[in-house]
Amino acid sequence: MTKLWAGRFEKPTSALLDDFQSSIPFDQRLLACDIRGSVAHATMLGERGILSPDDARAIVQGLEGILADVQAGRLAVDMSAEDVHMFVEDVLTRRIGEAGKRLHTGRSRNDQVALDTRLYAREACDHVRGLLAALLRVVVGLAREHVETVMPGYTHLQKAQPVTLGFHLMAYAQMFMRDITRFAHARQEADVMPLGSGALAGTTYALDRERVAQLLGFARLSDNAMDAVSDRDFLLSFLSAASIAMMHLSRFCEELILWNTNEFSTVVMDDAFATGSSIMPQKKNPDACELARGKTGRVYGDLMALLTVMKGLPLAYNKDMQEDKEAFFDACDTLDGCLRTFTAMLQTVTFRKDRLYASAGLGFTNATDLADYLVEKGVPFRDAHHVSGALVGKCVREGRALADLSLEELQKAHPAFDAGVYEAISLESCVKRRNLRGGPAPQAVLDSIGRAEAFLAALDGPTP
Fewer Cβ atoms within 10 A, N terminus or C terminus of the chain? Predict the structure, then answer.
C-alpha cells in the first residue's frame, strides 16, 4: 500500500520500521469511530463549501459502504496498512477516486486519532457503567435478601462486632456506586471534540467545529489545539477508574475466597464457577475469584504504562502516544471480562446463614455492647471498657462466652449489671440497636438499599 504521506520521501521506509510502527493490529478497533468522525467531517466540509456537494456526498456514501462491508465480512482490514486511518482513506480513494483524496482537507492524523479515541472512550465508559450497574443490582438484591442474616464484622481480619450480611454487601454497593460515578466523570473528560486542531496549530480552512461536535454528540469543543492533540488525560481517567473498580472487585473476591475455605465455611461456590485439581480429587477451587484478583494487577499495569509514556513528552504530539491504545483496550477487555464473570458468579453463590450466625457468636463480638450497657447505667466509657475487657480475659482463660457468665460473676466485676444485660448483648440486639444511618440494623440497611435503588433508577435517565 502506497503511504499517503510519501511525497516528501525519496525511498521507502525499512520493512523493520514498517513492522515496528504499525498500529493496525490494535487500532483497527477504532474503525467504526474513524468512519463516524470522517462522515461528520466530510458533511461539514460540504456544508461549508470547502468540498463540492457531489464530493461530500460521494465521500459519505463511500465511507458508509466501507463500514457496512467490514461489518458484514465482505471487506477485510489490510494488516499491511500503517494504521486504521490510512486503511480507510486508501480504500475510500480506490472506491470513489479523486474525491477520496479530499477527505483529509482541514485535518491531521493527530486530531483525527484524538477524535476516534475520544469517541471510543465515551462508548467504553457507558459500557462499563452498564456492567457495574448490573453488578450493583445483584449486590443490592442479595443485601435485601440478607438484611437479618447475622454475621461477624471484622477489623484486622479479627472478629470485631456483629453485623449482617446485608450490611456487609451494602459496603460493596457503596464502592460500586462510586465506580459508576468515576466512569461518568471519565466520560465527561472524553466528551470534548478535538477535530479542527490539525497537527497542533489548527487550520486555515473555515471549518465549523460546532457543527462537527453536534453531528457527533460532543458536549464541548477543545479550547487549545496543541493540548487537544497531545492530551490523553481522559484515557488516564478511564484507566484510573478501571483500576479502582478492579481493586474493589479484588477485595470482594478475596473475601469470597476466604469465606469459601474450610476454615470459614460460610460460602459455597457453585460448581459452574469453580474448578478442580488434576491430582487432588476433593478440590473445588474458586478460580473465577482468583483470576479477577490476579487480573487487577494487569489493569494497574495498564494505568502505569500510560502514565509512564506520558510523563516526559514535550508538546505536542509524539509517536510515543501510539502506545496509549493497547493499554486502554487491554483494560477495557479485562474489566469487561471480570465484571461479566463476577456478576454471573455472585448470583450463584450460597451463603450459609447458620455458619455465619455461629461465627458471629465467637470471638466476643458483643464485648463493645457489654461496655455500652454499663455506660447506659452511668458508668464512664473508659471504666466500662476496662470492665468489659477484664471479663473477656476471664472468658478466654476459662473457655467461655460473655453470655455464659452468671449475673453474680458480672456484678462482681461491676455492680451496675442487672438481668437486662443478657438481652443487651444478644447478637440480634447488638445489630438492631445500631439503627443510625449507615448502621447494620435491618431498617438502616433497608434505607441504604432504598438509596442505592434510587441511584440505579437515576442511571436510566440521560448520561451525565
Answer: N
Average pLDDT, the chain: 94
| Sequence-separated (6 or more) residues with CB below 8 Å from residue 167 | 143, 147, 153, 439, 440, 444, 445
Read off the C-alpha cell for 35.
468512519
The CB density around residue 204, as the number of other CB atoms within 10 Å, is 8
Find residue 220's DSSP bridge partners: 192
In whole angstroms, give the CA distance from residue 341 to residue 135.
10
| Alpha carbon distance 30, 311 (integer Å) | 25
Residue 11 burial (C-beta neighbours within 10 Å; 0-12, 13-18, 19+) = exposed
**Active-site annotation, residues:** 156, 277
H or E element, residue 329 = helix 324-346
Q: How far is CA 378 from the centre of its chain?
A: 49
Cis peptide before 316, with omega less than 30 degrees from 0? yes
Q: Is the pLDDT of residue 238 over 90?
A: yes
Quick one: average pLDDT of 31-40?
A: 98
CA 176 – CA 142 distance, rounded (Å): 14
By the 8 A CB rule, do 281 and 270 touch?
no
DSSP-derived letter for residue 460 is T
Residues in the chain: 464
Interior/surface letters 224-236, b for 16+ CB within 10 angstroms, e for the rest: ebbbbbbbbebbb
Which residue blocks in 73-205 are alpha helix, DSSP H?
84-96, 109-145, 165-190
- Residue 194 burial by CB count (10 A; 0-12/13-18/19+): exposed, middle or buried? buried
Would you say the C-alpha torsion 64, 66, 70, 72 has a positive or negative sign?
positive
- H/E stretch holding 191 reads none
Task: Using alpha carbons, list the distances in angstroms from residue 91 to 43, 48, 51, 298.
Answer: 19, 25, 19, 36
Instruction: Residue 45: name the closest of 35, 57, 34, 33 by CA.
Output: 57
Q: Tens digits of per-residue pLDDT, 75-99?
A: 999 999 989 999 999 999 999 999 9
Number of alpha helices (DSSP H) and beta strands (DSSP E) in the chain: 19, 6
The answer for residues whose C-beta is within 8 angstroms of residue 188's C-beta and 6 or more apart is 219, 464
Report the amino acid identity of residue 456: L
What lies within 8 Å, CB to CB, of 395 at 6+ separation is: 364, 401, 402, 404, 405
Q: Where are the alpha helices (DSSP H) in 48-108?
A: 53-72, 84-96
Can you give the pLDDT at residue 18?
63
**Across residues 290-301, what is the average pLDDT?**
98
The answer on pLDDT for 1 being more than 60 is no
Beta-carbon contacts of residue 368 (< 8 Å; ≥ 6 apart): 161, 388
pLDDT at res. 6: 61
Q: Is the pTM of this model over 0.90?
A: yes
